[in-house]
Amino acid sequence: MVVITAMALGIWSLLFILGFSHGIAGSYMRNTIDTQTSHVQVHHPDWKEDNEVKYSIALPADVQSEMEKLQLQTCSRIIANGMIASSRQARAIQVRGIDPKDEALVTGLQNFMVEGSYFEKKTRNPILISTRMAELLKLKIRSKPVITLTTMDGEITANAFKVVGIFDYKNTMLNEALVFVLNKDLDPILGMNGKVHEMAAKGEDSALAKQYRDALKSGLPGLLVESFEEVAPELAMFRTQMMQNTAILTSIVMLALIFGIINTMLMAVLERQRELGVLMAVGMKKGNVFLMVMLETVFLALIALPIGLLIAFATVSWLGKVGVDLSRYSDGLKNFGMSAVIHPELGLHMYIYIGLAVVVTALIGAIYPSLKAIRLRPVEAIRKV
Amino acid sequence: MSVVIETKALEKIYSESKFPVHALRGVDLQVHKGEFTAIVGPSGSGKTTLLNIIGGLDRPTKGRISVGGVDIAHLSDNELIEFRQKNIGFVFQSYNLIPVLTAKENVEFIMLLQNRSKEERIRRTESLLNRVGLGDRMDNRPGEMSGGQQQRVAVARALASSPQFILADEPTANLDSKTAGSLLDMMLEMNREEGTTFVFSTHDSRVIRRARRVITLVDGLIDSDEIREQ
Ligand SMILES: Nc1ncnc2c1ncn2[C@@H]1O[C@H](COP(=O)(O)OP(=O)(O)OP(=O)(O)O)[C@@H](O)[C@H]1O
Ligand SMILES: [Mg+2]
C-alpha cells in the first residue's frame, strides 16, 4: 500500500513539475511567436548580417501574393537603426515602420498599448514608444522626440515625431529597443520607394511553420525565408533545453522509483521466503517463480500508475485553467518576456511516455528481487520459522 | 512389491559452518511401494537430512539415491523441481500452506502446476478434501483453521499430485496428541485403502506405534529396522 502511494506520488509530482515547466516554456514560446517572430519571415539575404537600410526586399507585392497563396496573415516592415533623442537624453533604437492594420493582425501590437492610442488619431509623424523609453527620455503623450536615421543614400536625416501611444511589451529588452512609426512616414524619409526590410506572416498553427517556409522558399528565390526557430534561434535552443530537462528530471524520478521498487520487492520476497520455498519444494519451476515476482511488481505499478496519472492530469488541467500567479515571488520572469501567471500544460504524449517509462522501470526494478526469489533454496527457506 | 526409494552408502556432510557436520554416514535403505514407514531417532540423528535428500530438496555428499529408478542426485535444479512436482508429495512440520489461498485453492494449485484440466482439478480437490474430512472447510483460508485441519489440507495437497510417495517430516510435532492420532489414522486409512506410500519422521511414540515399519537412525546411521505385522 505504502509503495503504491509512494509510486503514485512520484508519478504525480514528476508530471506536475513537468506540467509547470512545459507551461512556462509553452507560454514563452507562444508569446514570442505571437508577438515577435510570427511563423515565417522574409528578408533580403544580407539583411541579417548587417541591418543596413539598403538590404531591402525589392518587390514586397510578390512576397505578399506568395504568402496569401498559403492563406497567411501578412505584414511588412521598414526597419532602421537610429537614435531617439528628447531634450534630456538620446538612445540607440530600432525604428519599425509598420502598417498598423496588418501589424495588428499579425503581432497584435495594439494589445500592448497602455497609454494613448494605437495610431488612431490622424497626426503628422506619429510614434509609439515603450513605457521604459518614456521613463528614460522623460517623454509623454504629445511629446516630440527627434529621430536620427541614415537614408538609402547614406545621408543622415533627423525628423521630429509625435508620441501618440505608449506600449509595454512586459519584456525589458524589447521595451528598450523598439519604437514604431508608420510605414508611409518612414518610406519617404529613408527613400525606400515602396521597398521594405521585413515581411512576416502567420498561419493557423506554429507547427506548420517549416512547411510555410519551404513553400515560400521555392516561390521566392533570392530572398531569405526563415521559420520562427531560425529567426529566433533561442527558441529552438529553449525547446531542446526543455526536452533535456524533461529527460533528466524523468531519469531522476525513475531512478528513485527503481530503488523504491527493488527495496519493496526485496522485502516482499524475504517476508515470503518460506512460501516461495514451499512453492519450489512442491514443484513450481524457477521460471514461474521469477515471473510471479515480476508480475506482482508490474501489478503494483499498474495500480499506482493510473492513480498518479489521473491526479496529475487533474491538477495540471485545473491549474492550467485557473493559472498560478507567481508575480509575488518573481519579478525576474518579466524581464525575459514571461508572464507571471503560469498555466501548467502537458501534452497527452507526455502522459503516455511517463506511463511507459514507469512500466519499464518497474520491470527493471523487479529483476533483482525476482532473481533473489529463485535463488532461495527450499530447504533453507522452509526451515525458517 | 516394487522399490520406490533406494539409497546406497548415502552420506551428507554439512560443511558450511566452521566444523563440518557429518549428518549421514552411510545409509542403505530400500522403501517399497505401499509402505507406511516411520523414521525415528534422537534429535540430530539425521532424520530431516535423510528426508530432504530423498525428497530431492537437498543433495547428498556421497552415495546414491534413486527414486522410482531415477538417480535424482544428478538432476539439474529445474529437473529436480519438476521431478518433485510429479513424484513426491510433501507434508511439512509447520503445515506451510499458502496463507492467501483457501483450502481448496491450496490443493488445486498443485494440479495447476501439472497442467491438469479444470474439471479434473475440481473433482479431485473436492474428493481429497472430503477424504481428509474437511468437506465443509473448503473455502477457509489457513488462518481460519486449526493446526490439525491445516495439516489435513497439507496431506490433501501432498496427495493431489498423485505422487509415488508422501514424505512428512514430523507431521504431528505441532499437534496435540489427540489431533495427531486422528491425522495418523487418516493417513493409515489412505495407506490401507489406496496403497499410498508414506515415509515420515517422528518423535511421537503414539505415532510410532501405528507405523508398520520403524527405522531408527542414530548418529547418521541406521541403528535398527523393524517391520511389524499389523
Ligand atoms: N544446514 C545445516 N548446516 C549445518 N549443519 C546442519 C544443517 N542441517 C542440519 N545440520 C546438522 O546435521 C545433523 C542432523 O540434523 P537433522 O536436522 O537431520 O537431525 P534430525 O534428526 O532431523 O533432528 P531433529 O529431531 O531435532 O529434527 C545435526 O547435527 C544438525 O545440527
Ligand atoms: Mg528434523
- Gross CATH architecture of chain B: 3-Layer(aba) Sandwich
The counted number of beta strands of chain B is 10
The average pLDDT score of chain A comes to 90
Q: Major beta sheet of chain B, specifics?
A: 6 strands, mixed
Order of strands in the sheet with the most strands of chain B? 6-7-8-3-9-10
Beta-sheet strand percentage of chain B?
25-35%
- What count of helical segments of chain A does DSSP give? 14
**Largest interface, C-beta closer than 8 angstroms, per-chain residues:** A-B, 17 and 22 residues
Q: Give the overall silhouette of chain B.
A: globular
- How many domain regions of chain B? 1
Number of domains of chain A: 2
Indicate the low-confidence ranges of chain B by residue numbers.
Answer: none
Bound molecules: adenosine-5'-triphosphate, magnesium ion
Order of secondary-structure elements of chain A? HEHEEHEEHEEEHEHEHEHHHHEHEHH
The gyration radius over C-alpha positions of chain B equals 17 Å
Radius of gyration of chain A: 31 Å
Structural category of chain B: alpha/beta
Overall 3D shape of chain A: elongated
Taking the alpha carbons of the first and last residues of chain B, their distance comes to 17 Å
Query: Termini distance of chain A?
Result: 25 Å
Protein model, in words:
The complex is a heterodimer of chains A (385) and B (230). Chain A contains 14 helices and 13 strands. Chain A has helices at residues 2-37, 60-69, 100-106, 131-137, 172-177, 183-190, 209-219, 228-231, 233-271, 273-281, 286-322, 332-335, 348-375, 378-383, and strands spanning 40-43, 73-85, 90-98, 113-116, 126-130, 146-150, 156-160, 162-167, 178-182, 198-202, 224-227, 324-325, 341-342. Chain A is elongated, with a radius of gyration of 31 Å. The mean pLDDT of chain A is 90. Chain B is α/β, with parallel strands linked by helices and 230 residues long. Helix content of chain B is 36%, strand content 28%. Chain B has helices at residues 47-54, 77-87, 103-113, 118-131, 147-160, 177-194, 205-210, and strands at 3-14, 21-32, 36-40, 62-67, 70-71, 88-91, 165-169, 197-201, 213-218, 221-227. Chain B has a 6-stranded mixed β-sheet, with helices on both faces. A 4-stranded antiparallel β-sheet of chain B has the order 2-1-4-5, covered by helices on one side. In chain B, a hairpin with a 2-residue loop joins strand 9 and strand 10 (221-227). The chains are: A alpha+beta (385), B alpha/beta (230). Bound molecules: adenosine-5'-triphosphate (ATP) and magnesium ion (MG).
